[in-house]
Write a structure and sequence with these properties.
The complex is a heterodimer of chains A (254) and B (251). Chain A is 75% helix and 0% strand. Chain A contains 10 helices and no strands. In chain A, helix 1 packs across helix 5, helix 4 packs antiparallel against helix 8 and helix 7 crosses helix 8. The longest helix of chain A has 34 residues. Chain B has 251 residues and is an alpha/beta fold. In chain B, helix 2 crosses helix 3 and helix 2 packs parallel to helix 4. Chain B is globular, with a radius of gyration of 18 Å. The chains are: A mainly alpha (254), B alpha/beta (251). Chains A and B meet through helix 1 of A and helix 2 of B.
């Protein structure tokens, strides 16, 4: 398992896909939150300003963290989802899958190593993104921190980002079964769309792709609270999908 | 001689059609066993089953006498099937280190340095695999398959994309490994490329073993086509081009 972990980490570290996704996530997501805040503050009748006002639920840090929650709810699933699609799907697209047979390291260990590396990367990127979001808020002087409950808001944001990154590893199953990037990317799009529908129907809390986002936006007007059971479903779903992925890799043929 | 690799009645069907049917084959220590056949003869499918990449519908593949489906010791097996172990984002050196690690090599740095030298890859050691020519990618794939000094080699068309010097290099390499006691199973559809160094040349046709050729024989191609035509029930007037065009006469 250790050998597989080292190799998978090395592949992830050297990938331009992963580097680009990391940069996009840690810079673009906080940038978008700041952008929405600036647009909302600017006011005016323009479509962009109206949309921004809808995304910023309140003033100061409350509004900023609410906007960041909405941005991260989607972004923290999309980015890790695409990376998961690459990590698993690339073995088929690059036709390297056959090289992973007839080795003393089992394919289930290789698949497990991919999941571990993906999860670790996701956690780091989630924490980095939330840290930069906080820093950007301070630099942009979005409002006074005293009495704004910034600490708990950031903790909620971090928990939401981590949960999203964890559940995004499920995409590896689609990329494996579909034997390529595209089925993985398709699964990401489908799951994001399904999450939106689930939220619209009022059952988003029970949908593990949607509940982290609802957690990030907790307290915003019209957002239902998320229960501990609903939160627990997120890592359980990732565990179930992960074990199915490992099992698939153990039994797969070339 | 002890068979390090063995096929016992291996069968594999796709959509009811036999890709490999009832194939028996052994590869002993110190032996080079060449599989020859036209495209689609079943060479790759047979090798896949021997390496656990495909499940047989009947029969078994054995490595050191252990069924390959029951997790035998793969640490001394080196294989190259179809696509080389060459991750585009990694350099040649990093690819070899990854292959060495996955094969359980202890002294990875030393193994990689020695392999780079043995395969003439030093010049490209720090170049990413995506920037390599097709021939050098194949060289890298072979190097990755052999970085751990295996005692069983399974190589599917190892001379693919290699220049004539590369083909000579592979022949020498196979002789060297067999000389050191390794069991070598190699496939080729270009008869003169690798079959000449083989101790045993098995002809696969339509998924079945249809006979054996004398590697030292005068006209290997003619012998091959005669055998294949005999199985197909046609007479052959003559071979025109290596494996491409055969003039046939009547059933």
């Amino acid at each position: 398992m250790r050998s597989a972990l080292v190799v998978e980490w090395h592949k992830l570290r050297r990938s331009s896909t992963v580097r680009a996704t990391t940069m996009l996530m840690v810079l673009m997501l906080p940038g978008l939150a700041i952008g929405f805040l600036v647009l909302a503050r600017g006011g005016g009748p323009g479509a962009a300003a109206l949309k921004a006002q809808a995304l910023v639920p309140g003033e100061g840090w409350q509004g900023y963290l609410g906007a960041a929650g909405q941005v991260l709810a989607v972004g923290m699933f999309l980015g890790p989802g695409f990376v998961a699609a690459w990590v698993f799907g690339r073995e088929f697209a690059d036709r390297t899958f056959s090289s992973l047979f007839a080795l003393p390291v089992s394919r289930s260990a290789i698949a497990a190593a991919k999941l571990v590396v993906l999860t670790g990367w996701g956690l780091v990127v989630a924490l980095l993104t939330v840290s930069i979001t906080a820093l950007a808020g301070l630099l942009a002087q979005v409002g006074p921190t005293a009495g704004a409950d910034v600490g708990s808001g950031l903790l909620r944001l971090a928990a939401s980002a981590i949960l999203s990154a964890i559940v995004a590893t499920c995409v590896g199953l689609a990329a494996s079964v579909g034997r390529g990037y595209l089925p993985g990317v398709g699964a990401v799009i489908l799951l994001v769309a399904a999450a939106q529908i689930a939220v619209l129907l009022g059952s988003g809390g029970w949908f593990p792709v949607a509940s982290p986002g609802l957690l990030a936006m907790a307290g915003s007007p019209g957002v239902p609270p998320v229960s501990a059971t609903q939160i627990l479903l997120v890592p359980l779903t990732a565990l179930l999908a992960g074990s199915l992925t490992v099992r698939w890799w153990a039994r797969a043929e070339v | 001689m002890t068979a390090l690799l063995e096929a016992r009645g291996l069968c594999r069907y796709y959509d009811g059609e036999a890709a490999v049917e009832d194939v028996d084959l052994t590869v002993a220590a110190g032996e080079i066993h060449a599989l020859v056949g036209l495209n689609g003869a079943g060479k790759t499918t047979l090798m896949r089953m021997l390496l656990g990449m495909a499940r047989p519908d009947a029969g078994a593949g054995l490595l050191h006498g252990v069924d390959v489906r029951s997790r035998p010791d793969w640490s001394r097996v080196g294989a190259l099937i179809e696509t080389p172990f060459a991750y585009p984002e990694l350099t040649v050196r990093e690819n070899l280190a990854a292959a060495a690690r996955l094969h359980g090599v202890g002294e990875i740095g030393a193994a990689v340095t020695a392999t780079l030298g043995r395969f003439g890859l030093e010049r490209w050691a720090d170049r990413r695999a995506r920037g390599l020519s097709l021939g050098n990618r194949q060289r890298l794939g072979l190097a990755a398959a052999l970085v751990h000094g295996p005692s069983v080699l399974v190589l599917d068309e190892p001379a693919n994309a290699l220049d004539p010097a590369g083909v000579v290099f592979i022949r020498d390499l196979l002789r060297e490994y067999a000389g050191a006691g390794a069991a070598v199973l190699v496939s080729s559809h270009h008869l003169d490329q690798l079959a000449r160094v083989a101790d045993v040349v098995t002809v696969l046709h339509r998924g079945r073993v249809v006979g054996h050729l004398d590697a030292a024989g005068a006209d290997l191609e003619q012998a091959f086509f005669d055998l294949v035509a005999q199985v197909d029930g046609v007479q052959v007037d003559g071979v025109q081009v290596d494996g491409v065009q055969v003039t046939r006469r009547g059933p």
